[in-house]
Write the structure tokens for this entry.
Amino acid sequence: QISDIRKAAQLGLWQSSVISTVLIHLRQLMKYKSVLNIIFISRILSVRAIVMQKSNVRIELFFKTHSDLRERVRFLSTKGVRSFNLVNKSNKDNALEWVDVIREEIPDASICAHYSAKYNKSRMKDGALKLFVDFVEKMDSKEGDNEVLVVTGSGDKGKFNSVTAMKTLAKKTQDRYSDLSNGATIAVAYNPFFPDQELQEEEQKRLMEKIDNNQVNRIYLQFGTDLELLRASLEWLTKMRPEKGNFDICGSIFLPTKKLIAQQRFRPWNGVFLSEEFLDSEDGARGIVLEMMRLYHSFGCEILIEAPGIRNEKDVKILEALLQDRDSESISKASVGEVLERCAENLEDPSKRRKIGPLPSSNVVSTEDCKNPAILLFGSHDIRLHDNEAFQLSSFHQSVIPLFLWCNGGKGKWGMNGASEVVLKDALRNLHKHLQASGLKLITRSTDDFQTELSKLCLETNASAIYWNKAHTTEGRIREKRNKQILHDIGIKAIQCQSSLLYDPSSPALSISSGFNGGHWGTLMPFLRTCRKQLGEPRRPILRHETFAILEKMRPPLVWPESSTIDDLGIAIIEGKDHWDAPILKKFPMSESDALRDLNDFFAHAFHLYERDRSRADIDHSTSKLSAHLRIGTLSPNEFFYRIEDSNLSYN
């Protein structure tokens, strides 16, 4: 049996997840101490090594002495690792000797030596550039698969940096290193995670200068946690590959251990951008790393486990589990009906990846219904994907059609007008871009008859169900009641969710004494205390990497229905020379990423001073600037609530 497994692994016939599953059962034999089983287990370990070797994994090595390096390489070789990166963290580092040590232990190893401009300076004129060329030539003279990764290092870039190094190499060698079969190849680094648009553009410009002469064989991506930015960068790099020498891509990841997370929280590395979700817990960090690994795998990239890398059996098990989960389905295949039924019965959600809150027990969608498209209906109060229950449940269908209908004549007293239309329009544009990045789009239509347009679209697309979030206004309740009736008449399931408020004020479980303030709530806190007492704590939002995973799995319809442009909807029409909308858009850009940025800024600079400074209009950060995001729905109230609850400040 072991022989068959080993052959299958060598031929690449089985996914690593299948082999790993077999090995889990075989490891039970370890409790028997017979000689036969010791031999048996040694063969199992050799199969594990093949699994690791075929997973495109590189390990960054961190050590103090040559003997430490030799011991680490021997250990990793037993796990099937054949690709190593040597970091350059000091001007006393001797990477050339380290390469020889690794080559002695593993003759066929792939070795990348990092060369940092920060630690290889010279007082002589052009001395640093000469040192660099000399290092590349010495690496080129060594036998085996060798690579030099040129990095600038943190701090001032100076005259000698990765860009000037690559330009110098081009002049000295005339593309000598662009097409060598035995010599050292050249790699450069790229950081796709800058949160600021100007810094992103500057980093892209620097990368283009580095790879301009087609000398670069590989691009290493730094570690970060914004999955949307990572996917966009991978798509950008993939498109330019044919014109720039078909370079390889290797993505860096951190092993999500408690120790590393603590280190990054209290002493973060320069240029490494980590989200609160990553720093809050091992589960959050692991989920983000796993989605990164899936992205890299889908784009055919290697992965680099950054220092301290893999040091012991515990680290190996963490990496093996990540590789196994990467190759398996990340999202449960349970039907919407099963989820709704369980939610109605107040049972635990069967899907580990989707923490979906309670929904009404009526309108249960069957597995058969999920074979037809679903319409995901957005309103002017829930323009987001993250922590959106309607979005989560619609994703169980084979295809999803996101939709926004604008009924200008039915706005009523509580509808969108004036400045609120400006931010709504901006939010819709950004939602459309967000969906487009995943192969979807937002269908938008303007209509004078909301229900007729909705039923017409259902018949056009053969949709079996429509999902939406409640709009808690008088006009919204009336419209949703009419929606349900007309959808029921044509046999379409209507699934109404609640994602725009912490609590549903119309919940039957929520009661108020008629003697309390004349039968209505006078202020916020009595209402909140009663909700907590009668309904329990608000549901916790799902994690952002879970939203990303759901979106990655969501599929478009075979044929998209007709759609008008957002500009043609008749929202926020600006006439005349006075562009009064410009200062509003400058002050309140409206997207999920803008909402997250404002949320993080508030907690970084103002949250601890809010009670004291909230009435000070004359100082920065006196207010959160989040009310527009909460009104339009680009920010989940549940996410905001639990950022406050989970803070280290007491209630007082």
